User: What shape does this take?
Amino acid sequence: MERGRQAYGWQTTCLIMGGLRAAIMLPLGALLYRDAPERYGLAPDEAAPRRIVYGPEEVYRRRGWRRPDRS
Assistant: This one.
């Protein structure tokens, strides 16, 4: 950075550094940005998280299992 300041001046060096940071951070942010928390089992701010609780019969039915005989 010191070399850049000496070669181009502080204003040009700051513009170059800002451009490099933007070129790195904007694509990285676009890759990591999540817009729908519901997809990941989360809730938006100040909303209660949605919990789905199934009983044992529902679990067996959803997985295609047969209930074991109780003896």
In short: The mean pLDDT is 78.
